[in-house]
Design brief:
The protein contains 4 helices and 5 strands. It has 134 residues and is of the alpha+beta class. A 5-stranded mixed sheet has the order 4-1-3-2-5, sandwiched between helices. The two termini are 25 Å apart. The mean pLDDT is 87. This is BLUF domain-containing protein.
Length: 134
């Protein structure tokens, strides 16, 4: 892997714009999976009916371009970035973009209450409990 293609990660949480139905997430993921695969981005999106928490990984430029797109997407509000930086190795090599639904809002609200690395560590600790569709 060249310097330009060094792995990068972003972990953020956001809220679904209030006037949109939760089913909106299905269309977001369908389009994102194809686009992310094209750019070498893998990760996990967890949605609890109103909150998104997403961990993205891949080439630096591709991940940052995607993050700018998410920050400008009107379907997301109240975006909070917990971790953004270099990554030694992929955590999601078994699938492209996984989607999991969280049971109730408490898990995702708990992550939002944390800061930086603690939020990411909590999310990663919860990963085995998610029913991931990849």
């Amino acid at each position: 892997m060249t310097e330009k293609q060094a792995l990068h990660e972003v972990f953020y949480c956001s809220m679904l714009t209030p006037d949109l139905p939760p089913a909106t997430v299905g269309s977001i993921v369908t389009l994102a999976r194809a686009r992310n695969a094209q750019y070498g981005i893998t990760g996990l999106l967890v949605f609890d009916g109103m909150r998104f928490c997403q961990h993205l990984e891949g080439p630096h430029g591709a991940v940052e371009t995607l993050m700018r797109r998410i920050e400008q997407d009107r379907r997301h509000t109240d975006i909070k970035i917990f971790r953004r930086g270099p990554l030694a190795s992929r955590r999601y090599s078994g699938f492209g973009m996984g989607l999991a639904e969280s049971e109730g809002p408490d898990l995702m609200a708990g992550i939002r209450a944390l800061d930086g690395e603690a939020a990411l560590a909590h999310f990663l600790a919860l990963r085995p409990s998610f029913d991931i569709n990849g």
